[in-house]
């Protein structure tokens, strides 16, 4: 069996340097890290995880608790988490709560002792739940969470600002007078913030026009159902803003099924900028969330917390997002109109 000493001897470095290189720690030049990893791969060196854990009291594994594993948003988020974990020599253990508070508690208990820290994205998780189900010694980074506690790092997307910016684009820059909003799940923090941004922009840019909110569930099916409801009205809206791209995909299908042209007959916008958004026909105008970067940032924040020895306080940060104008919102039609 190849040992870490064999790798060190082949690379001409110390055992400590091999350990730092393979575990993603600082103190080794990038060139040396690359050489050590190449030699470890060639010699088929596999670290003895159990022995290493006994020495370091670390599993070198990060847990990720997500509400679901289906859909492009979560696949992009996991991709970002995994890339950052691999860069630091860490493993990733992913579990889903299936949007259930009971399953979230079960998943957290199952990962205790198996991970060094957790990235948690769950709309149903609040501070009392975390205190009851997460040991104080286990660091955690919360994603898109309303929790404000000095015990946890929090990394949120600017859902309110992104929705407000999209509505400003649709109302002021494109000129749509009636914009309906397909909301997300009522208990979801992202959904609430996006709806809050929609309502604030309507108040500011369309005073006197009533908000028009149709419920959705962040799924293609709920987007299709919401669009069908809107199309059944005598006062069909001129534009629809879906609170995520998956619902926008469902809306687009319903509009085309009804024989409507997008954006000529009805405009559409989404939120998230999932990879498929740019490949729809027409391409989807949306609010870009750099989803993989969100995962990378969360993992790196957690890894820094694990390595920290100064007891620095936990912080809450917000990641910005931006409006991406494509073919569904009607901006090109507005620009092509005579002055």
TrEMBL record:
<keyword id="KW-0678">Repressor</keyword>
<feature type="domain" description="HTH cro/C1-type">
    <location>
        <begin position="3"/>
        <end position="36"/>
    </location>
</feature>
<dbReference type="InterPro" id="IPR010982">
    <property type="entry name" value="Lambda_DNA-bd_dom_sf"/>
</dbReference>
<dbReference type="GO" id="GO:0003677">
    <property type="term" value="F:DNA binding"/>
</dbReference>
<dbReference type="InterPro" id="IPR000843">
    <property type="entry name" value="HTH_LacI"/>
</dbReference>
<dbReference type="InterPro" id="IPR046335">
    <property type="entry name" value="LacI/GalR-like_sensor"/>
</dbReference>
<keyword id="KW-0805">Transcription regulation</keyword>
<keyword id="KW-0804">Transcription</keyword>
<protein>
    <submittedName>
        <fullName>LacI family DNA-binding transcriptional regulator</fullName>
    </submittedName>
</protein>
<keyword id="KW-0238">DNA-binding</keyword>
<dbReference type="InterPro" id="IPR028082">
    <property type="entry name" value="Peripla_BP_I"/>
</dbReference>
<dbReference type="Pfam" id="PF13377">
    <property type="entry name" value="Peripla_BP_3"/>
</dbReference>
<dbReference type="InterPro" id="IPR001387">
    <property type="entry name" value="Cro/C1-type_HTH"/>
</dbReference>
<feature type="domain" description="HTH lacI-type">
    <location>
        <begin position="2"/>
        <end position="56"/>
    </location>
</feature>
<dbReference type="Pfam" id="PF00356">
    <property type="entry name" value="LacI"/>
</dbReference>
